[in-house]
């Protein structure tokens, strides 16, 4: 995000979780990343996000996918 000048908010969530929290423990480990969008009323029928947060998340995920080649994934898997 910083390299691409994409605004972001960094936080560590003390409760809850995502599917990535379990996926990285599967078998020998599955490289996982959790990118979330700031949201109000997450577990309700009326969740609300800011459009800029959504659009910036799309930009970030697009750049991440462009940069993930097999060599990069292997480095992540082997903790290099």
Automatic annotation (TrEMBL):
GO terms for molecular function: hydrolase activity; metal ion binding. The keyword Zinc does not apply. It comes from the Bacteria. Keywords: Hydrolase, Metal-binding. The keyword Metal-binding applies. It holds the Pfam family Peptidase_M42. InterPro entries: Peptidase_M42 (IPR008007), Peptidase_M42_aminopept (IPR051464). This is Peptidase M28. It comes from Enterococcus faecium.
């Amino acid at each position: 995000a910083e390299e691409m000048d994409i605004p972001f908010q960094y936080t560590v969530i003390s409760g809850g979780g995502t599917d990535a929290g379990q996926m990285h423990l599967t078998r020998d480990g599955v490289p996982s990343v959790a990118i979330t969008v700031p949201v109000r009323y997450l577990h309700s029928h009326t969740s609300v996000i800011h459009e800029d947060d959504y659009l910036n998340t799309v930009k970030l995920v697009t750049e991440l996918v462009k940069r993930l080649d097999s060599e990069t994934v292997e480095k992540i898997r082997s903790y290099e």
